[in-house]
Design goal:
The complex is a heterodimer of chains A (115) and B (114).
Chain A (H helix, E strand, L loop, with lengths): L2 E3 L4 E5 L4 E3 L2 E3 L5 E8 L6 E7 L6 E3 L2 E6 L4 E6 L8 E9 L7 E2 L3 E6 L1
Parallel strand pairs in A: 2-12
Antiparallel strand pairs in A: 1-4, 3-9, 5-6, 5-10, 7-8, 8-9, 10-11, 10-12
Chain B lengths: L4 E3 L2 E4 L5 E6 L6 E8 L3 E9 L2 E5 L6 E5 L5 E5 L8 E8 L9 E2 L3 E5 L1
Parallel strand pairs in B: 2-11
Antiparallel strand pairs in B: 1-3, 3-8, 4-5, 4-9, 5-6, 7-8, 9-10, 9-11
The chains are: A mainly beta (115), B mainly beta (114).
């Protein structure tokens, strides 16, 4: 069975601060895929990034960066110089299991960026 | 805009009623997924279709059913509605429905059961 834990329920930061959202996953599979999705107040789910279990190279995209560490089963997401538009609920998700076709989501972390 | 469309955006109905939610996948995607998002359960996978055939089932109630049509759009039917069915229902699509795919989500249908 797979599980995704986002221990931070809510985070508040002041605009321009950096913020890291934590994600810890559990799976018995050696091949799996990890995702981050963003859900702004408007409600839609927006895909941000996907990482494969065999590629631990960290990634930076603009103000976003992701730190994938298999040794600690973590896939953390950092926003640098946060902006009010970053306010949203962020979900970490796991796709694993040869016979599984479903994404397992964490409970989400609500990020509020205060101007 | 993910390219996945869902209608209606909002739906308000009464207990015991039946509703149909509709989803059109991104152009070229063969697989459709349905998810339910509620405050207490979070985001939960309901069911997946690939090219018209059911591929996987998750926590879908017997009162709920779905299908994918030859033009690849999908419908989720919810019947004998209860107050607890109030939730945001998402449709997602992907190219092949494989683990290597990324699922792209539609804007969701917010169902309120009164």
């Amino acid at each position: 069975a797979q599980k995704v834990t986002q221990a931070q329920t809510e985070i508040s930061v002041v605009e321009k601060e950096d913020v890291t959202l934590d994600c810890v996953y559990e799976t018995r599979d050696t091949t799996y895929y990890l995702f981050w999705y963003k859900q702004p107040p408007s409600g839609e789910l927006v895909f941000l990034i996907r990482r494969n279990s065999f590629d631990e190279q960290n990634e930076i995209s603009g103000r976003y960066s992701w730190n994938f560490q298999k040794s600690t089963s973590s896939f953390n997401f950092t926003i640098t110089a946060s902006q009010v538009v970053d306010s949203a609920v962020y979900f970490c998700a796991l796709y694993s299991g040869a016979g599984s076709y479903q994404l397992t989501f964490g409970k989400g972390t609500k990020l509020s960026v205060i101007p | 805009d993910s390219g996945v469309t869902q209608t209606p955006k909002h739906l308000i109905t009464a207990t015991g009623q039946r509703v149909t939610l509709r989803c059109s996948p991104r152009s070229g995607d063969l697989s459709v997924y349905w998810y339910q998002q509620s405050l207490d359960q979070g985001l939960q996978f309901l069911i997946q279709y690939y090219n018209g055939e059911e591929r996987a089932k998750g926590n879908i109630l017997e009162r709920f059913s779905a299908q994918q049509f030859p033009d690849l759009h999908s419908e989720l039917n919810l019947s004998s509605l209860e107050l607890g069915d109030s939730a945001l229902y998402f449709c997602a699509s992907s190219v092949q429905g494989a683990r290597t795919d990324t699922q792209y989500f539609g804007p969701g249908t917010r169902l309120t059961v009164l």
